[in-house]
Amino acid sequence: MVKVITYGTFDLLHYGHIKLLERAKALGDYLIVGVTSDDFDKTRGKINNQQSLIERLSAVKSTGIADEIIVEEYEGQKVDDIRRYDIDIFTVGSDWEGRFDYLNDFCKVVYLPRTKGVSSSDIRAESRKIRMRIIGGLKTGEKVGAETAYVNGVEITDSDNTEDYDAVYIATMPEEHYAEIKKALLDGKHVLCESPVAIKRTDYNELKEIAREKSLILADAIKTAYSTAYSRLLAVAKSGIIGEIVSVDAVCTSLREGVGERGANFDGKQNSMCAWGPTAMLPVFQLLGTEYKSKSIVTKLISKEKLFDGFTKIDFIFENAAASIRIAKAAKAEGELVVTGTKGYIYVPAPWWKTDYFEVRFENQTDNKRFFYQLDGDGIRYEIVAFAKAIEGNKRSCNISEDVTSAICSVTEDFYNGKYLEI
Ligand code: CTP
């Protein structure tokens, strides 16, 4: 019996896939199809599959061509599979010509002609073309523009004619967010806005209601929330492996030349509270909830007039846990995240907010576990994918709940209302 194996993502199964599967089957007597998992696809740079692994698996199954279907989860699995299943022929489409020649050491490699004129990418691009306009000149806006190139189905437009775009990315100073968001929502546009979304909780609540009434997405753009490692960290922390969480401590600092000097020009520069506060508060609220019992803000202001804090420390007290954040644009500290539990802790080395790696550590070091997940583009491209999916009404909505956004706005508001202790 000649055993054949082939691999693919098979997103939005199309005619080209079916032809490939038929040709692969015709090469032998028994066909195994490896469907690539979402995580493995991400490491290969395929970030916006429209269908989940389960949906893709059942689509391949429904063709009735495969004798066996497996999931491809890691680099190097092909060699393992070829050995494990005693494969005679490995095959893929000719778009991969040459790439799998190394498998010749294990079995015969056949590149099959690729069907012209059809691909999952084309179908995805046709079914959703979200035109996004970037508002505001902050540097992050530029990054979003560049990263959008990796997300098919979303394109950047410079036109300010409301007919020409469906969504906006807001990269203005935080004080301007409210007016910009309101305008965009009233124009019927979806909004992805840098955090803090508003500097008053009531403003956010109003915007949230407008978005809900008009069935529009209003999403909080904290890129860390979209990194795979960070999402896994939340899951691991909540799994109970480190016991009960008793403390979350996050530090975010960036020291830019000139910012710390008295009399420096603060125009167009975000204070530490807005630049770093939301990111640092994210794991606190996502792990411990938003119902803290009390908090205290200690700040070192460089400019009182502009309310520019060079360093701020916030302590939160929850029913059964504590948390702290230290944020600074005019001071430097180790930018790490530690989640303390009753059985062990999670440690994320600096800069934790761009994390691709974390460790779960225990008293007995031999029990320690390390986790690594590739991160491309600081998480921004995943954020745009999540935003696009939320717009399409696909179930996977954006990763930051309204409660968390609201709590961030509320802490920011207290800071702006002077509820801090100055040092
Ligand atoms: N394939 C093919 N003809 C096409 C499209 C895909 O023969 N028109 C083959 C590929 O060569 C591969 C398999 O189908 O062996 C699975 O491909 P996959 O990457 O899932 O499909 P694409 O449509 O190429 O997806 P994308 O556009 O996302 O790259």
Question: How would you explain this protein's 3D organization?
Answer:
By secondary structure, the chain is an alpha/beta fold. It has 3 domains: 3-118, HUPs (Rossmann fold), CATH 3.40.50; 122-222, NAD(P)-binding Rossmann-like Domain (Rossmann fold), CATH 3.40.50.720; 225-422, Dihydrodipicolinate Reductase, domain 2, CATH 3.30.360.10. It contains 12 helices and 19 strands. It has a 9-stranded mixed β-sheet, covered by helices on one side. A 5-stranded parallel β-sheet has the order 3-2-1-4-5, sandwiched between helices. A 5-stranded parallel β-sheet has the order 7-6-8-9-10, sandwiched between helices. β1, α1 (15-26) and β2 form a beta-alpha-beta unit. α7 packs parallel to α8, α8 (201-213) runs antiparallel to α12 (402-416) and α10 packs across α12. It is globular, with a radius of gyration of 25 Å. 39% of the residues are buried. The protein binds cytidine-5'-triphosphate. Cytidine-5'-triphosphate (CTP) binds at residues 8-11, 16-17, 20, 92-93, 95, 114-115, 118-121.
